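2.7 Reproducibility. Because tokenized structures are sensitive to small changes in the input, we list the exact sequence used for Phospholipid-transporting ATPase, including any N-terminal residues retained from the expression construct. No trimming or masking was applied before prediction.
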Amino acid sequence: MSRRRADSQGSLGPDDEVVPYSDDETDDELDPSMDEDGGPAAPGPDIQSSESSWSVKANDRDYCKRPEFQRKSFLCMKKSKYSGNAIRTYKYNVLTFIPMNLYEQFKRVANLYFLALLILQIIPEISTLPWYTTLVPLVLVLGITAIKDLVDDLARHRMDKEINNRKCEVLQDGRFQESKWRFIQVGDVVRLKKNDFIPADLLLLSSSNPNSLCYVETAELDGETNLKFKMGLKVTDEHLQEENQMAGFNATVVCEEPNNRLDKFTGTMHWKNDRFPLDLDNLLLRGCRVRNTELSHALVIYAGFDTKIMRNGGKTRFKRTKIDQLMNYMVYTIFVVLILVCAGLAIGHTYWYEDIGSKAWYLFDGKAQTASYRGFLSFWGYIIVLNTMVPISLYVSVEVIRLGQSKFINWDLQMYYQEKDTPAKARTTTLNEQLGQIEYIFSDKTGTLTQNIMAFKKCTISGRSYGDPTSAEGVTLDRGRPVDFSKFPYADRTFQFFDHYLVTCIQSKKDKDILEFFKLLSLCHTVMVEEKEGELVYQAASPDEGALVTAARNFGFVFLSRTQDTITINEMGTEATYEMLALLDFNSDRKRMSILLKFPDGRIRLYCKGADTVIYERLSPQSRHKETTQEALDIFANETLRTLCLCYKDISQADFQAWSRKHKEASVATSNREEALDRVYELLEKDMMLIGATAIEDKLQDGVPQTIAKLAKADIKIWVLTGDKKETAENIGYSCELLTDDMQIHYGEDVNEKLTIRQANRRNNPIAKAKKTKEPFFSGNEKNALIITGGWLNEILYEKKKKRRRLRLRRLGKRPSPSNPQDNQPQDDIEKEMRQEDFVDMACECSAVICCRVTPKQKANVVSLVKRYKKAVTLSIGDGANDVNMIKTADIGVGISGQEGMQAVMSSDYAFAQFRYLERLLLVHGRWSYIRMCKFLRYFFYKNFAFTLVHFWYSFFSGYSSQVAYEDWFITLYNVAYSSLPVLLVGLLDQDVSDKLSLKFPKLYTPGQQGILFNYKTFFISLFHGIFTSLIIFFIPYGAFLQTMGQDGEAPSDYQSFAVVTASSLIFTVNLQISLDTSYWTFVNCFAVLGSIAIYFGIMFDIHSAGIHVLFPSAFTFTGVASNALRQPYLWLTIILTVGISLLPVICIQFLCKTIWPGVGDKVQRNRRKYEAEEEEEERKKKPTAFQRGRRSRRSAYAFSHSRGYADLIASGRSFRQRPGARRSPQDSIREVPQAENI
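Resulting structure tokens (single pass, no recycling of outputs):
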């Protein structure tokens, strides 16, 4: 199926290669010369740039304390607007813990309700129960929750303390002294050593490398371990090398206000009566790490919460699960039911007292109270009696269950990554059941789906393909062993290649094309090299470049060194130096790079490598093997390998001289220099001869395609949100099987067109606007995928237009006016929201969505849109600081740990080392947690209704007098000791099917997404079940006690005996009911059920004993009741009958549901043994398979995604000139350290 590629070149839409602005930009960051229509700005008053408002003076801490830099903080108090470098993520300290924690806990309505209830119980006229029946559970709940909160906050304290107490050298009193990070201030000059973390956002002044180059690793920012280079200004490099020079440094830096733009920085340094421009290349960002640079000196520009990494963190949001919210609404419902029931009983008491109570002489209490007043007191009395309808122990039980489930995640060895010694970590205990309800996953790409490691896999040379397992004689093998490269002195021992025939051809030196192929790879690049302790260390502009040069190195063509105008390689043991006449670097338009070399024998040759789409246009008609190479490229593309074509061209001396003159003229052009150079490059890069093509694998993390496929079967949609280029993201989409050949792919302009048509139809047809049902955007049953860039995202959602319009209106001093309906502007906020909703609807119709070139803010916005318009439960997963905002915005945030970047992990709710563990986290732990919590809540509400409503039925026979049906101590201990343990263990241990079957049948996950296991329907079923049980528990013993006679001739129909029988029936019923609901029996469950019943009888006989009555006569009044009542066989028969009738309907309903209307889980459970046997058989049959790739029909274009390399740096010679006597070389022995573009 053909798919249309959206090409940003030449289109009127946004540039797909550019990362759009962030919402945190100030208006002056937009191009002030352009208005919203793209024309020149209208004349108006000058806008003061925000640059002038952030000023830093070196070595002057008092400068930041000046009055002009003060701002109001609290009432009339002022403080400096410059943050200190200490960070704080904890919530409490020693003084605030108790008041703040109690305040937060009493924001829970149930806790506040029980506090009010406790106060009511102190009032003698109202109290019908002793105060301790409420105080004991309330103190228990508050205490356990406070301890949990304290433990969580202590962990935050430790993390903050560890970071704030890191050491760094700061210039103080004219010399560098060791200081803690928290004491660093804006304006300080700091000295960093190799492998140091960067403590704040710093302006690089100088380093021990040539021309103050400094290499940094940005793992904490973006998850990439590739090195980026930063560079100090020439003036600071020359004048700031010694300590005394640093002490005299007094420059003033004026720059932009703190913001979250990781890819932008502008400022000016004023020093020695001159001004020097500053940009992102001069800025070291907090969270990065210094690599391969012995010493560097820098000036603190932003500290603490002003740094870009902290600004990207977004607001810490309090996350609550859907079940939490539903549970609160249900508690409100119970409140309403409670008030209505109490009001009804109070009215009943009023009428009863008027008709009966006031006329019965034996009920006279000596109080002259009216019937209405007695009814009023009865209302409050019943509020106390029926308070257990609102279950106070519910919240503490939920917290205990969540804590246990979090520990199970931490202890899961199948989510432990042995290579990095990294276990899974549940960093929160409040969201576990939400893991069983995920509908959308938003994933980063680099470091999350991929390892960001490139490997040279295959190639085609002169029409023959190499790379499959092949013997030295050229015979294709099913499985092969890796080539032994130890015979090559410079070989990288980690490099693996399975084609022995290619090595044989190289060693024989018979095929000149093969030798030319690898010579090109060793010469045509911008890699820089250092030799450390006998090892070659490559610094590449991207992992692809490093992989290609490393491959050439293993096949005998070793890149050794380069200068500004020469490059030296080792060709099969012979060292040769080539003169570099020109280096034509990559960029996103050219999609190729070339190098013009003068050979030792005087020949001039151009080597070129690039995307097949641009190389084939520039080949000579006489070039051979074009068709066979094209076929090989298609095969490589099917395997989702990143391809690159290689070609060459011989150039005469005269042609070179003529071209060189044109190149020199273009290189000194004062305007449009880039375009002029591109035109000159075009003159040279034509009529070239094709040699072959390379194929590189962008390694996915293990198990990524299988994980995505499994999650898709569970009806979970996965969106990839990445800052990478479109082609790279699309290629990875195919690699991880998120995109497939049968999908129709829609790009930004196509999406914009569809949304614009829908918007126009809505404007022209108001009836359609009012319709609630929406027509789908895509017709038919074909699968669709959406690939959209950050620029198009802003265009579609009106973000850029909104900001440009606001800028223009502010410049003109006008207020916004209604938009012209024809200019594609939103007429109002409602239309903008409808446009956003249309976009979400369209994206959700697609099987896959990839958003590329998006900022951290845009990632969070996409997550917010889906949450807002789909009311869906979302999960975000990433590994870098650019994912933090997205992680915090989603309902569940997951951080990939194990790399050195821990910023995402620190902001996440769950952390583990590999993307594939997400499958187990959701389909096993998430699903189990959801099922357990739902079962726990249904049963908890049921047992409390069954317990409490016995009072309601009893009130009809007690004159609605707020008399309790049970003994006081039974009411106190019912939820604490008699019925809590079995249901708690079900919430912790229950599982309907095993973990293996949960993974084998992903459809078992869907009930959680639909929320069918716990909702208002199940709540009311529990309510009616409780009503039924309470009816049986009250009326069967009541009927049995009427006109009966015991064996001893005494009637056992007294109130206290009745209370014991109903209580005993209740305990048997609720404990046997949880037994019926238990799917997974262990010794612990069995012990809990039998133990709860045993505890009930043990405690009851103790508190009914004469001994305890003698000690506390007023508190224990049921003396001898249990022993007297329970020795009557008639009462035991009553208990058995009550329990049997209560449970029989439940048994019948469960039997019918599982046999006549079984769900997916019931079917799997029924055939559990068969499936488990199949699983064991499959595991026995499993054998390790050779490397294979899925089939694709997609061209992988490495050159499309490759960034600009080090050509400018090489041509300038800045990285080669050595300052005499002062440079030390790094000591690390690193084989290959690939690098990507500057951030």
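The chain has 42 helices and 36 strands.
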